[in-house]
Amino acid sequence: MAVSTAAAQVACSTCGHVFDDYDAASALPRLACPDCDSTGRAFRHDLNDSVEIHEQLAFKARHGGQKPFLEGKSGDSKSHDARWATVEQVVDRENNRYRKKVTDSRGNVIRDVDESLDSHRGYGSAKPKRPATPISNSQIN
What sign results for the dihedral spanned by CA atoms 6, 7, 10, 13? Predict the structure, then answer.
């Protein structure tokens, strides 16, 4: 998650008196400083930001131009509910194996599957598509 913050401050450039009202202190014509009567100003802007880095490595192994006989991925993945998890997945077509392990950020195993690829049907892109719901005239108007 990236977090950004910004802070602004206007002070007298002569004595350092900090003005409470940023807009009034920076407006022209400037009012004199209540401590030293100077109209000079020093503007300070503090910007802070943080970034989280997530990565994932994926691979595919092929014999010529055929469908991959081995493919997989390992690394961070964002779920449908916007939570990050670590995924290790291997689809081994030559040895008829499907392996997938999903672990949350606390190390709890969310999913752990190790089965024959023949048994692994109806998931992901092989999931049956739901028929589209027809739109009635009342929904359009």
Answer: negative
- Domain residues for the domain of 90 are 56-126
> In which element (H, E) is residue 137 found?
helix 137-140
Residue with tokens 């961070």: 76
In angstroms, the Cα distances linking 77 to 49, 98, 104, 111, 120 are 23, 18, 10, 13, 21
Burial (CB < 10 A; 0-12, 13-18, 19+), residue 38, is middle
The model's pTM is 0.57
Lowest mean pLDDT among 59-68, 85-94, 106-115, 129-138: 129-138
Residues 41, 74 share a domain = no
